[in-house]
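User: I've been trying to design a sequence by hand for this structure and keep getting stuck. Would you show me what you'd pick, starting by listing the structure so we're on the same page?

Assistant: Good idea, let's start from the same input. This is the structure you sent:
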């Protein structure tokens, strides 16, 4: 009977150690899940912010301002438009692929 009690005591202690270990691992994994979810929320927030910034940068007025200031462009008016005219022989040569 003493051997059986001793064997049961060892089995009980082993199962207690195993239970503590599993509980520790579960708490650690839940902590990692919480960190990953917080990181996901941060990334989603950054994505939404960047998407909004992209939309604000692509407005026609913003594009026009950048074109004027940084690229030195200006709107096309009849005063700055050059019209090219072809003679009939030049047009025929261009359609046939000759230079």
């Amino acid at each position: 009977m003493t051997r059986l009690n001793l064997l049961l005591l060892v089995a009980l202690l082993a199962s207690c150690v195993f239970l503590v270990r599993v509980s520790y691992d579960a708490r650690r994994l839940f902590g990692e899940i919480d960190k990953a979810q917080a990181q996901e929320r941060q990334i989603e927030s950054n994505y939404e912010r960047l998407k909004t910034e992209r939309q604000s940068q692509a407005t026609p007025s913003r594009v026009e301002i950048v074109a004027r200031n940084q690229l030195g462009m200006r709107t096309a008016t009849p005063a700055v438009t050059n019209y090219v005219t072809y003679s009939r022989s030049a047009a025929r040569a261009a359609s046939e692929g000759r230079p």
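That's my pick for every position. To get oriented when you compare it with your attempt: DSSP finds three helices and no strands in the chain. The mean pLDDT is 88.
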